[in-house]
C-alpha cells in the first residue's frame, strides 16, 4: 500500500505548488525581474496598469495558486487555472529554453487536471466508459 504522501499526484501537486510559491516570492521581493519579463512580452503595451502593479498581481495570483495546491483545495480547478496561466507565461517569455522549462510545469498542471483522484475539473474519459 502506497503512503498518500509519496503518491505521484501528491508529489506533483506539492512540486507545482513550490513552483508557484517561488514565482510569487520573486514577484514580491524582486519585482524588477518580473517587470523585465513583462516589458519584453508582446502584451506589454496593452496591460492597463503599471509594470510594478502587474508584478504584484502576478505575485498574488501565484501565492493563491500555491496555497490552494498546498492545501489540496479544488485541485483540478486550480490545476486548470495554473495550466492556462503557464501558457500565458510561455507566450510572454517566447524564448525556446524558457518554453521548454515551462512545458514541464504545464505537464504537471495537466496531470493534476485530469487525475481522477480529485473531484470536479476536467474529464478525460467518455462518460459511457467510466465505472
Structure characterization notes:
Helix 1 crosses helix 2 and helix 2 packs across helix 3 (51-71). The chain is mainly α and 131 residues long. The chain has one domain. It has helices spanning 8-29, 31-40, 51-71, 75-93, 96-114. It starts with 7 loop residues before the first helix and ends in a 17-residue tail after the last helix. The mean pLDDT is 86.
Low-confidence stretches: none
Radius of gyration: 16 Å
User: Percent of residues in helical segments?
Assistant: 55-70%
Q: Pairing-aware structural class of the strands and helices?
A: mainly alpha
Number of domains: 1
Give the integer mean of the pLDDT values.
86
Distance between the termini: 22 Å
What characterizes the major β-sheet?
none
- Per DSSP, what share of the residues sits in E-state strands of 2 or more residues? under 5%
Number of helices: 5
* Overall shape: elongated
Order of helices and strands: HHHHH
Q: Can you count the beta strands? A: 0
Amino acid at each position: 500500500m502506497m503512503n498518500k504522501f509519496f503518491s505521484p499526484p501528491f508529489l506533483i501537486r506539492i512540486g507545482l505548488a513550490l513552483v508557484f510559491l517561488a514565482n510569487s516570492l520573486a514577484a514580491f521581493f524582486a519585482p524588477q525581474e518580473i517587470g523585465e519579463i513583462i516589458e519584453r512580452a508582446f502584451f506589454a503595451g496593452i496591460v492597463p496598469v503599471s509594470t510594478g502593479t502587474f508584478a504584484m498581481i502576478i505575485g498574488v495570483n501565484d501565492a493563491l495558486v500555491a496555497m490552494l495546491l498546498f492545501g489540496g483545495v479544488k485541485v483540478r480547478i486550480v490545476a486548470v487555472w495554473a495550466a492556462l496561466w503557464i501558457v500565458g507565461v510561455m507566450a510572454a517569455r517566447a524564448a525556446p529554453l524558457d518554453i521548454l522549462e515551462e512545458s514541464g510545469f504545464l505537464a504537471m498542471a495537466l496531470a493534476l487536471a485530469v487525475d481522477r483522484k480529485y473531484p470536479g475539473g476536467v474529464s478525460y474519459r467518455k462518460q459511457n466508459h467510466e465505472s
